[in-house]
Known about the structure:
This protein has helices spanning 17-20, 33-43, 57-64, 84-91, 114-124, 193-202, 222-233; strands spanning 2-6, 27-28, 31-32, 48-53, 73-78, 101-105, 108-110, 128-133, 143-146, 152-155, 158-159, 167-177, 207-211, 216-218. It has one domain (2-235): Alpha-Beta Complex (Spore Coat Polysaccharide Biosynthesis Protein SpsA, Chain A).
Amino acid sequence: MKAMILAAGLGTRLRPLTDTLPKPLLPIAGRPLIAWNLLLLRRYDVTEVMINLHHLGHLIEQELGDGSAFGMRIAYSKEPAILGTGGGLKQAEPFFGGEPFFVLNGDTLFDMDLGGMAAAHRQNRAVATMALRTDPDPDRWGAVELDAMHHVIRINGRGKNPDRRTRKQMFAGVHLMHPRLLADVPAGRESSIIEAYVRAIEAGETVAGCELSGYWSDIGTPERYAQAQRDAEAGLINLKDRLA
């Protein structure tokens, strides 16, 4: 299975740190943030990875190279203008070879059983599976509503009208999807992949939810970045022993 790491963002909320360093290269316990995601992928035998680039992208390419230091093959999709999650995935579409692939946010530090996620994806015969977390205020992140089968019914209030009460969770920025979802995503234009998810739900496709119960942190603000550094140093997340 292949994966794509989304790493083209500007990191504006972390300025001035991101004025000279792209957010995926910010150090966490002595390793670039994006390296933690690569180590997790390799733990589950994902060794072919596409990374999209925009803001200071050349520094990411210089740091990671061809991926051989991680026992991987890394390719790059360069975006002169940011294409968003939808447009960025669409540009990289040929890389996926028509097979399901993982998508990770390059600014998220997390630990998760990706093998279990893949098994649940197959069992549900889902077009996509979203990693979800319980949060006291899921609407703050953009609520994902689930039915009793743990299938996604609505995202940000859009999708199907549920027959019964739904359960709200937050999207953790990790997903497994089939590239057929990209068929109607416009090429060369900025868009969100959530639009494709909503269309799939409305068309009756299965978008499943999968619980992320391990460590998770969105490195979106200086405060959360500092907390993630403390967490890694305290051993709350530890993938360093996986490095070749």
